[in-house]
Structure formats: structure tokens, C-alpha cells
TrEMBL record:
GO terms for molecular function: DNA binding; DNA-binding transcription factor activity. This is Putative ArsR family transcriptional regulator. InterPro entries: ArsR-like_HTH, HTH_ArsR_DNA-bd_dom, Metal_resp_trans_reg, WH-like_DNA-bd_sf, WH_DNA-bd_sf. NCBIfam families: HTH_metalloreg (NF033788). Residues 20-115 form the HTH arsR-type domain. Keywords: DNA-binding, Transcription, Transcription regulation. PANTHER family: ARSENICAL RESISTANCE OPERON REPRESSOR ARSR-RELATED, HTH-TYPE TRANSCRIPTIONAL REPRESSOR CZRA.
Length: 122
């Protein structure tokens, strides 16, 4: 077992170590892991811009297979970022996590504007 590096300034060590008491570090690491995949990030951007879209339309927009989109959606649903509602025989998906919504805005995501110029609710 390796010995810990001796502290040059114990007060700096205490201040730095206090940051590790931030709530839910593992949860944030998981969020960043999900966001680190380009296809999932593109999928989230599509859901942000076009809520209530079905898997087939997402697959066409992303130039991915429906199976790949469904797999990514399953991961995002398990995390609670995306929800689905049944529309006849298909499912429609939307972004539901407010933190992810704000993160997408931070990287420049926009909302769809219809022809009258009114912004969608989300």
C-alpha cells in the first residue's frame, strides 16, 4: 500500500477535501457518462428540439437504426431523463429532466419555433 502524499499546506488540503462532501458525486459522474456518448447527446438534442417524437422519426433524424435509438432511449428512461407516452401503436418520447434541459441550453440547444414564432413549452 502506498503512503499518502504529505501535505504542503494542511489548510489547503482541508478546503479541497471539503469539496468532496458535495452531494451525489456518483450521480453526477453517471450523468456525465451518459452525456459523453455522441449518439445519446444528439438524441437528447433532438428530444429537446422536437418533443413527443416517435422512435422511427428519431432514427430517421439521427440516421441511426430504430434498435440503436430504442437502446439509447431505454438508458435515458432508466436514468429518468426521458419519458414516453403511448400514441396508438407507437410511443412518443420527450425530455423530462430539468437539469439535463438546462445543460442542453448551456451548450447551445434551442427550442423549435413554429411559424407564428411562439416557443414550444419545453
Amino acid at each position: 500500500m502506498m503512503a499518502a502524499t504529505p501535505a504542503l499546506n494542511p489548510e489547503d488540503v482541508q478546503r479541497a477535501a471539503a469539496a468532496l462532501h458535495t452531494p451525489d458525486i456518483d450521480g453526477w459522474a453517471n450523468r456525465f457518462e451518459l452525456l459523453s456518448d455522441g449518439n445519446r447527446l444528439r438524441l437528447l438534442l433532438c428530444l429537446h428540439h422536437a418533443p413527443d417524437i416517435c422512435v422511427g422519426d428519431l432514427a430517421a433524424a439521427l440516421d441511426m437504426t430504430g434498435t440503436a435509438v430504442s437502446h439509447a432511449l431505454r438508458l435515458l428512461r432508466n436514468q429518468g431523463w426521458v419519458s414516453a407516452t403511448r400514441d396508438g401503436r407507437s410511443m412518443r418520447y420527450r425530455l423530462t429532466d430539468d437539469t439535463v434541459h438546462e445543460l442542453l441550453h448551456t451548450i447551445g440547444a434551442t427550442h423549435y419555433h413554429n411559424h407564428t414564432g411562439a416557443e414550444e413549452e419545453r
